[in-house]
Structures are given as C-alpha cells and as structure tokens.
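Please fill in the sequence for the structure shown.

STRUCTURE ENCODING:
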C-alpha cells in the first residue's frame, strides 16, 4: 500500500449498511476532505446461503462506480477499494470482486475483523493519540468493532445493526427488550477480557451515532461536523422512542437519517448494551471513520518510505 509521490488519495469502503468514499490530501492531519456515501444495505441482501444475489452485486457495482467518479473529480491520484463484514461473510466475494474490477478497474481487498477495528480506531482517534487514552466503537451493519488504548486491544463482534435486525426486528417495546438481551449476550461473551483505561475518551463511529445525533438535535449532522457528545440516558430514551413507532412514523421524525428507520433501533440496542457493559456514561460521535483510518495509514506508510 505505497503512497510514494501521491499527494491526494482516495478510498472506497464497502460496508454492510453503506458504502463510503473519502478523498483527502495526505498529511497530519488529512486535509481538504471530500466525503461520499451511498446506502447500499449489502448485509440485508445476503441470502440464507450467505450469497450476494446478482441484483445486489449490480446495485453495489453501480454505487462504487458513482463513488469512484466522485473521488476522481475530487482529485484522487490513487484510489483503493476495500470491503468489511457483509463481503467478509459472503460465500461469493470473488464473484463480486470480478464484477467490480470489470466495471471500475479497481481490485477489491476484504478486511479482517481485526483490521477493520484497527482502521476504525485510527480514523476516529488519530487527532487525540498524543493526548489521552482513547476507546473507539464502530457499530456497523454486520459487526461491531471495539478498540482501546493505542489500538492495543482490538475486538470484532458478530453483532451489527442489520444482523440484529434480521434476528430481532424492533417493532415495539417487547421486541426492543429482546434485541437488548441478544446484544448483551454477544457483548458479554466477546468483551470478557477487555481492560478499560480509567480516563478513556470514548468515540462512536458509524451511521448509528450520526443518526442518533440527528434525532437528539432535530436535524441531520453536517458532513464536517465536530465531535458531538451524548449520554447513555439519551441513547436509552431514543431507543424507547423509536421502539414505540412504526417505520413510517420514525421516518417523519426531525433529524431522522433517511434509510435508517428500520435498523436504527437495533443499532441503538447494541450501543446501549455496550455502554452498560463497559460502564460508559457518555461518548462523542465523530464523522471520522475507517476511511479516515485507511488514508491516514497510507500517509504513515508514505512517511516511512
């Protein structure tokens, strides 16, 4: 992953809920950022055999092509394409990779859960690494990543907003409680050995956090919004609110992120259960994510070259 001679680079990361693009001038910090995002809902398109059907592949290829054009228009001299949980879980990732290569010319790299956690941590935390201990949570569609310290503790849980939605769709308060119980079981089992730094600053990455802040504030967050804080109580209250509403009523709420009305309650169930388990009373939502981590790591490699 050499960035020798490259001043401006881009990355497209295929997630389980959405596909994101970031183009930036490499440096400390990354500057002149241009972000793109499309809701591709890839995890929900997996069949029972864990295959991506042809329609889902075609839709994703179109989305990646559009984001590729945005990245090139933003001045990307080098462009990378990677994928996370949904593609990692699929049994026909190679078929997807061939389709993407044919349409875009880009080679697809599938991240491991550990690598995904490391990039989420680096993207969210790099502005603070020299000042304090950091904890980062990235709630995706198919998995949840937790990283602490200086990425010395990395955890990837098979627990995501879309995955939990398929098992425990939230249509009322009782269903919300079932989703919480399921999330608690996975979190307790997966984070048994976690060691929490006593004064850690906690950052939340991903669509669940941004959608939560939209509802708390009554308007969608800006793409370049600064880190914004929320409490465990606010996460609980928002989950209870959404659990009592239909999908149509959720979509009408001020600040509701389009396309999240189905899976936001399960994302909040994961968030609430995780904050309870780790005894976190407040966190900050950041717009930085694994795309930032990927490009910042590219910059680090460039510095060492």
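FILLED IN BY: designer on duty
SEQUENCE:
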């Amino acid at each position: 992953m050499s960035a020798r001679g490259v001043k401006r680079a881009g990355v497209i990361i295929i997630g389980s809920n959405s596909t994101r693009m970031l183009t930036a001038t490499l440096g400390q910090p990354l500057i002149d950022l241009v972000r793109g995002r499309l809701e591709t809902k890839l995890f929900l398109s997996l069949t029972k055999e864990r295959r991506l059907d042809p329609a889902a592949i075609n839709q994703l290829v179109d989305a990646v092509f559009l984001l590729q054009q945005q990245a090139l228009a933003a001045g990307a001299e080098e462009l990378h394409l990677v994928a996370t949980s949904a593609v990692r879980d699929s049994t026909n990732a190679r078929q997807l990779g061939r389709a993407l290569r044919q349409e875009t010319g880009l080679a697809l790299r599938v991240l491991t859960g550990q690598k995904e956690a490391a990039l989420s941590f680096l993207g969210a935390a790099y502005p603070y690494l020299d000042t304090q201990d950091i904890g980062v949570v990235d709630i995706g569609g198919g998995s949840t990543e937790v990283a602490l310290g200086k990425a010395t503790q990395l955890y990837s849980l098979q627990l995501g907003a879309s995955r939990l939605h398929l098992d425990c769709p939230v249509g009322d308060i009782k269903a919300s409680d079932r989703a919480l119980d399921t999330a608690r079981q996975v979190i307790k089992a997966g984070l048994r050995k976690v060691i929490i730094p006593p004064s850690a600053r906690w950052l939340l990455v991903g669509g669940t956090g941004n959608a939560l802040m939209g509802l708390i504030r009554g308007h969608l967050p800006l793409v370049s919004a600064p880190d914004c804080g929320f409490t465990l109580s606010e996460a609980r209250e928002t989950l209870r609110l959404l659990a009592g509403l239909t999908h149509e009523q959720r979509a009408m709420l001020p600040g509701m992120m389009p396309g999240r009305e189905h899976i936001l309650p399960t994302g909040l169930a994961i968030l609430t259960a995780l904050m309870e388990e780790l005894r976190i009373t407040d966190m900050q939502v950041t717009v930085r994510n694994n795309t930032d981590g990927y490009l910042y790591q590219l910059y680090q490699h460039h510095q060492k070259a």
